[in-house]
Design a protein that fits this description.
The chain is an alpha+beta fold. It has two domains: 65 residues, no CATH class; 64 residues, no CATH class. Strands 1-2-3-4 form a four-stranded antiparallel β-sheet, with helices on one face. A hairpin with a 6-residue loop joins strand 1 and strand 2. It is elongated and about 75 Å long. The relative contact order is 0.08.
């Protein structure tokens, strides 16, 4: 059983027969599709008489998953927080934190004041990616090696 994959994340269609993909149009068996549903679980459907019908159903499922509320919420967060500076984001985040003990709050303020604010306070949130975080972590590690605390 060979499968034909489409664009990444869209799914695949196949026939459960011994024929190569080039012979599928002449094979009497129906096409099946396999994809990830909105919950991220693998799903399978059968009963498609042509490749075009199988592809159309995969495209329909893919668009429904892309337009799910989770994608819209993520897009709204990106739109809201991308232009925001890190300092402003941190202040907004702290305002929504409850149940922080006084010791935790002091520790958080110390980390922000001595480590994060000097490095990132005026950076925009959309400039962050894994490379920025890795560079910051490497710099912090090197600083600890050069200036060990007793």
């Amino acid at each position: 059983m060979a499968t034909t994959s489409l664009i990444r994340g869209m799914g695949s269609f196949f026939k459960e027969c011994e024929h190569p993909g080039s012979r599928w149009p002449r094979c009497p068996r129906e096409y099946k599709i396999r994809y990830r549903n909105a919950a991220g679980r693998q799903a399978e459907e059968s009963g498609f008489t042509t490749q075009d019908k199988a592809k159309a159903r995969l495209a329909e499922v893919y668009q429904a998953r892309k337009n799910a509320p989770q994608s819209r919420r993520k897009a709204e967060r990106i739109r809201k927080y991308s232009p925001m500076q890190v300092g402003d984001y941190v202040e907004e985040w702290k305002a929504h934190q409850r149940d922080l003990s006084p010791a935790s709050l002091r520790h958080l303020e110390s980390l922000l004041e001595h480590h994060l604010h000097p490095a990132f306070h005026s950076c925009r949130m959309d400039t962050f990616d894994h490379r920025v975080v890795e560079a910051f972590t490497l710099l912090a590690s090197l600083t600890d090696l050069l200036h060990p605390q007793d």
